[in-house]
Structures are given as structure tokens and as C-alpha cells.
Design a protein that fits this description.
The complex is a heterodimer of chains A (241) and B (244). By secondary structure, chain A is of the alpha+beta class. Chain A is 25% helix and 31% strand. A 5-stranded mixed beta barrel of chain A has the order 8-9-10-12-11. Chain A has a 3-stranded antiparallel β-sheet with strand order 2-6-7, with no helix packed on it. In chain B, the strands form 3 sheets. Chain B has a 5-stranded mixed β-sheet. In chain B, strands 8, 9, 10, 11 and 12 form a 5-stranded antiparallel β-sheet that branches. A two-stranded antiparallel ribbon of chain B has the order 1-2. Chain B is globular and about 55 Å long. Chain B starts with 6 loop residues before the first strand and ends with a strand. The chains are: A alpha+beta (241), B alpha+beta (244). Chain A binds chain B through residues 1-6, 8-12, 23, 25, 27, 32, 34-38, 50-54, 56, 82-84, 120-122, 147, 202-205, and chain B through 35-36, 53-56, 65, 109, 113-116, 144-153, 188-190, 229, 232-233, 236-244.
Chain lengths: 241, 244
């Protein structure tokens, strides 16, 4: 068992510059931490898992954004980051030659998009040419700290699979800390509560198991539980039906 | 004029030794709306620091396409001193904001966030000499709490000359009636002092005394650095993870 230690900016994490990974910097042949985070040190590399910080876009990320401005050649989108993003009309498949940009997407509309390109001046370009991408007309958007996103996804998507199988809802996690949920309103509420628990207890052991338990408990409380619950609990749920 | 004695029987007015700091209390993450924040007490000084960013730059013309800009605002509350202080920036707080910003700029990795701004606001709720050092210490903790990439941490402390003796971390009486007041700020990396990022002086000391003052300040800074670390650790310790 190894514990993941908290490191602060400037802490020495390695003396081998070849191992330097994310969240570190090299000076004078030594590797130092540059952000507050958890030290993840293996034989091949050392990186810092940040505990705080804004979302910095990178190419290929799925993000959820809000349209802030409509221009003649595209939309300006707020992606919950220091940088605003631009979605050109050519990158939106819903755009037909006879339609105006503000008929397709208007100010305040939420979209799921992908980061297509980032230039050195941090001008971010989005695309919606992907089967995942769509304008959001229904459902709910939940905001969390972007550094917790990997926990909500889980190892190889285990947490998302849990939400889909246990609650039968649609869920899309944006890398920028916005999460879209859609389905039965009561189930979406359970998922929202569960996401906040994940955000609070992101770095504790057995999180997936506890979330499974939590969802089952909440389902019984709201009278949504079915055969998989305990016998006496299922009786309760039948009564409430 | 009656002579004021600041050192009696080898002790300072508040009973401290020459190389002793005032009691320090630091708490990280006290403000919910800020990205990072810190409340700090250093003797009778009480300050709050808030860090926002990196975020979009407004007004737009201040934007730098190659790196983030850092803005530091030191401000004293009207009730922070005995006579009411007129609110708003004055000559003194503008100067302190500038030197403090320059003390933090080499530590922050600005080049990682082109076209963005990192805003640091520090408010003095109660002042008792050395408020700029207290503010820098608070700002440094708040920056770490905000998750901003930095080369190390900044720790600041002042040294004064009173009644011909160098003393660490002067309080109000020593600042008023002493012969010199020298605030320092250091960049500390991996528990070692790497460089001096702020050095001011009010009054007169000899070159030899300045050298001794520097050594004294370094000792004090190391103690404060440990307290800064502890404050952040206290907030995040439950995040530590055990992996198999």
C-alpha cells in the first residue's frame, strides 16, 4: 500500500528530469511540484493530481457550453474556463444554407461540443460534428469542480456505467465540470445528489461501492426500487406505489 | 520629551524576545465565492486574501497574448486603524500593491495562461505594523488554495531596529518609535530560501546590520513557511488517498 501524499508548489518530487509529468516543472535537473495536489509516483513517471484549479481546454475534450453571443459566422460559447470558445457555423451540422445562426442556436442555449483546435494565443475552436454533440433542450446541468471530473467518470467509465444501469438516465460529463443529466426527474435528482457526494469525497477509498449503496437507498426512499432491493424494502416500495 | 524605552530588561514591550514572532493563525479556504482564499492573523494584524483566476481580462486592452497578468490590490478597511482611514486607494496602498505584486510575479507561472488575469485582493481588517508582510503571507496561501501553478511559496517577515537592537516582526510601537523597519519577502522552494522577492527599508541601518537583519528574517520566514504549509495541509489532509 502506498499513500498518495499531498504536495505543495515547490516541493521536490523527483531528481530524475525524465520522469517529469503533468503538474511538475524541471529546474536545475530536479523535478518540483507546481500545483497543490496529490503525488502520483510510479517507476516510469511522476505527476501531480490537482486538487483545485480552473478548466484549461485541450484538443479533443467534450465540453458543455452556454452560447454567449451570436455572430454572422458562428457562436461565442462560455465553456466555464478562463478562455471563451468559438463555434463556427461550418462546424454545426444543424446549420443549413437558408437558416440564420440565431435560428439554430440563440443566446443562453446550452450545447455539448468538442474542442477542435486551440491556437497558441488560446483561441479555442469548437465542433459539433460528432454523434455525442447536440444542443441541450431537456434535462439538467450540474456544475462541479473540474478537477473532480475523472472521479465522476470513474475508472474506465465505471461510475457513468453505474448511473446508466442503476438509474436508467442519460448522462454526459463535460471535461469542464458541467454534467448533463436527462431522464426521470426523481432519478435525475438522485444522480445529482450522488454527483455532489462524489465531488465532496473524491479521494476516498471504495467510492463506487458507496455510491451504489447510496443510489439504492435513495431509490427505496423515493419508491423507485425494484426487485434487487431487500425483501422488506421492496414491500415498502410496493406500498408507496 | 519623555524618552520611550522599547526594550526593558532584554525583553520587548509585549514580552517577546528579540528573535521571536508574534502569534500567527492561518486558515485557508474561508471564502466560498473565491477560487482561493485565506484568513491570517499575525499578532494584532487581521487580513483576508482572495484569489480569482485565471480568468478573462477586463478591460480587454490590459490583456497580454503571451502570459497571464497579475493584479494585486492591497486595501485597508476604514476601521482597521485608530483614526478612521479614508476608504479607497491612496498613495501608500498603491505603492504596497505594486511592490507586493512584484514580489509574487516571479513565483506565479504566468506563461501557462496567456490572455488571462489572476486577481489577488487583500483586505486589512485590523492593522498593527507589518500589514504588508501579513498580506503577502495570506496571498501566498490563497494562491496555493486556488490551485495556481507556482515555482514555490512566498513568505514575508519584517525586521526592525529599535533602541539599537535588531528585532524580528515589529509591532506598532516598535514601528512608530524605532530607528528602522525592513520588510522582506522570500521565495521558498522545497523548504529552502531561494531568493528575495521584496526588500524595503524605512529608516537607517549600517550594511553590517542589514546583513544581520537578513539572517534574522530568514529564520523567521522559515517558521512562517511551516505555518503556511500546515494551514493548507489542515484543509486538504482528508483528500489524501490510499492506493494499493
Amino acid at each position: 500500500m502506498i499513500s498518495r501524499k499531498i504536495v505543495l508548489p515547490g516541493d521536490l518530487v523527483s531528481t530524475n528530469p525524465k520522469t517529469a509529468g503533468a503538474g511538475t516543472y524541471v529546474e536545475g535537473g530536479k523535478v518540483y511540484a507546481r500545483v497543490l495536489g496529490l503525488l502520483d509516483k510510479t517507476d516510469t513517471g511522476v505527476r501531480i493530481i490537482p486538487l483545485k484549479g480552473r478548466y484549461i481546454p485541450s484538443i479533443g475534450d467534450t465540453v458543455i457550453g452556454i452560447v454567449k453571443e451570436v455572430t454572422a459566422n458562428g457562436w461565442i460559447v462560455d465553456i466555464n474556463s478562463p478562455y471563451i470558445a468559438f463555434l463556427p457555423i461550418l462546424e454545426n451540422p444543424a446549420m443549413k444554407p437558408n437558416r440564420k445562426p440565431n435560428d439554430v442556436l440563440d443566446i443562453g442555449d446550452a450545447i455539448i461540443a468538442k474542442v477542435m483546435n486551440i491556437d497558441p494565443k488560446m483561441k479555442v475552436t469548437l465542433t459539433m460534428k460528432d454523434k455525442l454533440c447536440r444542443p441541450i433542450r431537456v434535462g439538467r446541468i450540474v456544475a462541479i469542480n473540474p478537477t473532480r471530473v475523472p472521479r465522476v467518470i470513474g475508472r474506465k467509465g465505471s461510475m457513468i456505467k453505474l448511473f446508466k444501469s442503476e438509474l436508467d438516465i442519460q448522462i454526459i460529463v463535460g471535461q469542464n465540470g458541467l454534467i448533463w443529466l436527462n431522464g426521470d426527474r426523481r432519478k435525475v435528482s438522485i444522480a445529482e445528489e450522488a454527483i455532489y457526494i462524489i465531488e465532496q469525497e473524491a479521494h476516498t477509498e471504495g467510492l463506487t461501492d458507496r455510491i451504489t449503496e447510496f443510489i439504492k437507498k435513495r431509490k427505496v426512499e423515493l419508491g423507485l426500487a425494484e426487485s434487487e432491493a431487500e425483501p422488506e424494502e421492496s414491500k415498502n416500495s410496493e406500498e408507496s406505489k | 520629551m519623555e524618552e520611550i524605552r522599547l526594550i526593558v530588561d532584554g525583553k520587548r514591550l509585549d514580552g517577546r524576545g528579540f528573535e521571536e514572532l508574534r502569534p500567527i493563525k492561518i486558515e485557508a479556504g474561508v471564502l466560498k465565492r473565491a477560487d482561493g482564499s485565506c484568513y491570517l492573523e499575525m499578532g494584532k494584524n487581521k487580513v483576508v486574501a482572495a484569489v480569482y483566476g485565471p480568468r478573462e481580462v477586463h478591460p480587454k486592452h490590459l490583456e497580454d497574448p503571451s502570459m497571464a497578468i497579475v493584479r494585486y490590490r492591497y486595501s485597508m478597511a476604514p476601521f482597521s486603524v485608530e483614526d478612521r482611514k479614508r476608504p479607497g486607494p491612496d498613495r501608500r496602498s498603491i505603492e504596497i500593491s505594486k511592490v507586493s505584486r512584484e514580489a509574487l510575479e516571479p513565483v506565479i507561472m504566468k506563461e501557462l495562461f496567456p490572455r488571462s488575469a489572476i486577481d489577488i485582493f487583500v483586505e486589512v481588517l485590523q492593522a498593527d505594523a507589518g500589514s504588508r508582510t501579513a498580506c503577502l503571507n495570506a496571498a501566498s496561501v490563497a494562491l496555493v488554495d486556488a490551485g495556481i501553478p507556482m515555482r514555490g511559496m512566498v513568505t514575508s517577515v519584517a525586521v526592525a531596529k529599535v533602541d539599537g537592537v535588531l528585532v524580528l516582526d515589529p509591532m506598532k510601537e516598535e514601528d512608530y518609535y524605532g530607528e528602522a523597519d525592513i520588510p522582506f519577502a522570500f521565495l521558498i522552494r522545497n523548504g529552502k530560501i531561494e531568493s528575495i522577492t521584496l526588500l524595503q527599508m524605512d529608516g537607517r541601518v549600517t550594511a553590517e546590520e542589514l546583513r544581520r537583519a537578513l539572517e534574522l528574517a530568514k529564520k523567521g520566514a522559515m517558521q512562517i513557511y511551516q505555518l503556511q504549509r500546515d494551514a493548507i495541509m489542515r484543509k486538504y489532509i482528508r483528500e489524501e488517498e490510499v492506493v494499493e
